[in-house]
């Protein structure tokens, strides 16, 4: 339980700083990154991926549309279905925003040796895969 508590504390600390630094909340940044990978996604896919409610997704999408990062488009086959895509602004700037945000947190890992960093990455991947497999059951 202590490892979970420490992980949550670290994430909370980083979330606050990310929000202040790049003017996008951590959830908004993750949402943009997810949309970028899928190119065109449905809000329900975002909710499932991040294990959040559709209402939370709608609120995030509204904010990102207002900021000019994403746009909504009706599906050609079924107008009831809404797809989310990146705007040209997001396509041009998102990689830079993500890189800049990640660079700001490089200092966290300065205390680790290269071997420890590689081991930590393997452990995070293992935990992430387990979390996703449990979520799907």
TrEMBL record:
Keyword check for Transcription regulation: yes
PROSITE patterns named in the record: HTH_MARR_2
Keyword match Metal-binding: no
A GO term, aspect molecular function: DNA-binding transcription factor activity
UniProt keyword list: DNA-binding, Transcription, Transcription regulation
Gene3D superfamilies associated with the record: Winged helix-like DNA-binding domain superfamily/Winged helix DNA-binding domain (1.10.10.10)
Domain (HTH marR-type) ranges: 1-129
InterPro entries to which the protein is assigned, alphabetical: ArsR-like_HTH, HTH_MarR-typ, WH-like_DNA-bd_sf, WH_DNA-bd_sf
Protein name: HTH marR-type domain-containing protein
Source organism (scientific name): candidate division WS6 bacterium RIFOXYC1_FULL_33_10
Upper taxonomic lineage: Bacteria, Candidatus Dojkabacteria
């Amino acid at each position: 339980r202590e490892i979970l508590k420490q992980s949550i504390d670290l994430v909370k600390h980083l979330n606050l700083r990310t929000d202040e630094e790049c003017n996008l909340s951590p959830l908004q940044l993750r949402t943009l990154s997810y949309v970028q990978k899928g190119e065109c996604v449905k809000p329900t896919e975002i909710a499932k991926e991040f294990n959040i409610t559709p209402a939370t997704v709608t609120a995030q999408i509204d904010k990102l549309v207002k900021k000019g990062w994403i746009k909504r488009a009706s599906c050609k086959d079924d107008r009831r279905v809404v797809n989310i895509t990146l705007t040209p602004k997001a396509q041009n700037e998102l990689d830079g925003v993500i890189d800049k945000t990640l660079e700001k947190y490089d200092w966290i890992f300065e205390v680790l040796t290269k071997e420890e960093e590689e081991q930590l990455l393997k452990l995070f991947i293992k935990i992430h895969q387990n979390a996703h497999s449990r979520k799907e059951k």
